Amino acid sequence: MNNNPDDMEARYIAMIENNVNVSKTSDLKEFFILVAGIIVLSIFVFMCADFIAGVWIDNMPDKTQIKIENIMSYGAEDFQLSAPSNQFASQLEFLNRQKLKIINFDKKLQGKSKFDIKVYPSKDLNAFVVPNGTIFFTAGMLGEIKDEQMLTFVLAHEMAHYAHRDHLKGSGRQIIAGVILSLLTSGQNNSLTKLVENVSTFNTLTYSKKQEKNADLFANSVIIKLYGNNNAAVKFMQLIDEKQNIPQYMHYFSTHPAPSERIYLLKHNR
User: Fold this and answer.
1) Which end of the chain is more exposed for a tag (fewer CB within 10 A), N or C?
2) What would the pLDDT profile of 20-72 be if each residue is shown by its tens digit?
3) Where along the chain do its domains lie?
């Protein structure tokens, strides 16, 4: 047997050149395993972070929650119109009456926020709540929506976000998941870090959509109790669908579910 090092090296080189015992797919297979592992790990981290944040916020004293919410809402007062137009006066009066009825539906809404209702200077058809419970209806929303049941549905939806503590839980989840993932990817290459960031963004959107659906269900139960049906909720979402006119695939990158999904949810919870 010839053990000449030069001959052995030559045979090894020949094996590589002839692809002997060398898999063309090994590198690709390892790459896909790595990507799949990162995705599974990121999802698991977000699930753990969501659970920890939920337990943490649910057991946090009310006074502490309110302090954090006020800090997170700093500057929100600057959003409102300096002098709301008289054309919105009757709607604002109605909404302020309805909020008192909605508060009685959930103990989590009682004694924690005044739920001030203000007008946001935008032509968009939108409404949102800031962490301290202040609710903003855009001028576009109040100008377009005159139906009282629709307005009640939107108001209840925004109050649900506060009742569920979505702002606090969302921030807590992001902080916890961010710290864990940063530790896991510390010192890794840019490509790996970027992949983790993209998966994290997708997970964030997924949880945001879940929060929106839960808020829809809360608002749905409110208007059914108040009016006996949820026809106005379905009509409102149909109107949103018409106004948005967004391609279906774009909703995968949105914080909100597609209107068609929300309509389906409402129709099957009457």
Assistant:
1) N
2) 454 556 677 777 887 788 778 888 888 888 888 888 888 888 888 888 888 88
3) 26-267
